[in-house]
Design a protein that fits this description.
Elements: H1 10-22, H2 41-58, H3 65-81, E1 90-94, E2 101-104, E3 108-112, H4 113-118, H5 122-137, H6 140-164, H7 170-179, H8 191-207, H9 213-223, H10 239-252
Parallel strand pairs: 1-3
Antiparallel strand pairs: 2-3
Helix pairs in contact: 1-6, 2-6, 2-7, 3-5, 5-8, 5-9, 6-7, 8-10, 9-10
């Protein structure tokens, strides 16, 4: 998504409304640190729940009991380590070969069967889960939604999405929230968001008793995929660079 704070189109002006426009900054524009709270946290949470419900209606859950058991074990271990009640979260394994995972507002985390198979160890899968929890803790979806509302589709699209659940901008909204390639779009987080999620994920892994070096191993494997890179890479920086950055974070811990 491009930055256009000072060049709002007529459509955006109409959808934002005067009150919202009055709050827009005169200078500066950064998707990773959007300062305007155009969409409340509760609204973003409700949007996450709508997207989660729609995904579950459209994509079958995995019938592999072992996958669900492993994800539940990892999720419970990491959530308890951060002082969270695992019962307040929902982690599901979805059917499909996509090597991908995502987090949605409302304490929802999804992992595809492809990712479950790609991760060779429980610790490597914990690196994926920790990274997604990191996005949630840092409220990156909220930041992206506020930036997108101001610059791309406006408050009316949010209202229609919540009221009907299947309207224009529905796919874009779901992608902004974190579904990414699952809805046919690629809306990557900013480098700042990715770095913050990495740091939080590594901390969660350590607190839960997992070796954080497993995250480096996972990204090294992704770097070796060549032309057949996993879908997970389409919304993340270059895997080799990612692995090096993770090593730097671990060394500096």
């Amino acid at each position: 998504m491009t930055c256009g704070c000072g060049l709002l189109s007529r459509r955006r002006v109409l959808t934002l409304g005067g009150a919202a426009l009055a709050a827009l900054p005169l200078t500066g524009c950064d998707d990773g640190d959007w300062p305007i709270d155009l969409v409340s946290d509760e609204t973003v949470r409700e949007m996450g729940l709508v997207s989660w419900r729609q995904l579950k209606e459209q994509t079958p859950l995995s019938d592999q009991a072992r996958f669900h058991q492993v994800l539940d074990t990892i999720g419970s271990r990491m959530l308890r380590a951060m002082g969270e009640d695992p019962q307040a979260w929902e982690l599901q394994v979805f059917e499909g070969d996509a090597v991908n995972a995502f987090a949605l507002p409302g304490n929802k985390i999804g992992v595809f069967e492809g990712m479950m198979r790609f991760a060779r160890t429980e610790a490597q899968l914990a690196a994926v889960v920790g990274h997604e929890i990191g996005h949630h803790l840092a409220e990156h979806a909220q930041e992206r939604m506020n930036a997108a509302v101001a610059k791309d589709f406006g408050l009316e699209a949010v209202e229609f999405f919540l009221d009907i659940g299947d309207v224009a901008y529905g796919r874009e909204i779901a992608a902004v929230l974190g579904l990414g390639v699952e809805v046919g779009l690629t809306l990557p987080y900013t480098r700042e968001h990715e770095l913050e999620a990495d740091r939080l994920g590594l901390r969660l892994m350590t607190d839960a008793g997992y070796d954080p070096r497993a995250a480096v191993q996972l990204w090294r494997r992704m770097a070796g995929q060549g032309g057949g890179q996993p879908a997970f890479l389409s919304t993340h920086p270059a895997p080799a660079d990612r692995a090096e950055r993770l090593e730097e974070i671990i060394r500096g811990a």
